[in-house]
Design brief:
The structure is a single chain. The protein has six helices and 15 strands. The N terminus is likely disordered.
Amino acid sequence: MGRQVAVSAGYSSLPNGNFIPEIWSKKMQAKFYASTVLGEIANHDWEGEIKGSGSKVIIRAIPTVTIGDYGIGGTINYQDLEDDKIELLIDKAKYFAFKVDDVDEVQSDIAIVNKTTQDASEQMKITVDTDVLGNVYSDAANTLATTVVTATNVLTWIINAGTALDEANVPESGRWMVIPPWIAGMIKQSDLKDASLAGDGVSIMRNGRLGMIDRFTLYNSNNIALTGVAASGTFHCMAGTKHFISFASQFVKTETLRLQNSFGDAIRGLKVYGYKATKPEAGVYMPATKV
């Protein structure tokens, strides 16, 4: 097959005309995906304990011991330890399913099934990431006032989040913050004269890398929830440590089936997962808007 080339006036072509054959490249165009951050900001301590959708994991919490005053000759009151526990429900499920005709697969010079399955995996990660980031921020025990973030106040905004965690006795190690690209741009425009703020030998203005600011490792994400439109809406940014979010997931089934009503294969996969703010005090909700 091909398309016929136009013939110039006065030139006699072959009866059937000249044809340029269609050639399918063996290379596929690059595809870009939104960066996912869930693997870096949530703990996965109970991931190996789930069996399927609808199950749950019972997480035991360490009891808080009461300290009492003691005097010589006094009596001691023994505390009954409360069996504190948290339920992590595995109540969400996502799937992908596509089919490949035998003729298409034979005629293709590329491993279309493998490439498409890889794409399905990436799309699954983005979907789950967006789900978690779009909901769990509201469970943070610490909340900053909605802030119009600019290059002038962005560092104060970040430091205020760190102060909120300090006041909640949250450890300094392992702190993270998730921000949209436009706030990352504000940070790069800010006057970071003190290079040590970024944990580097040169300022962010010079090297363009966000790195770490005020004990937070910064993650750039397009999956942050947005209420309204980008120009005037609220971006639901958040910060915390891995204690804040517990996440568990697994692919319970990925399989290839022969189609019954045509010649081809069906490829499908099912992923179950659940998440919960198991330590709300380890999270900070940081609503932000543009100028």
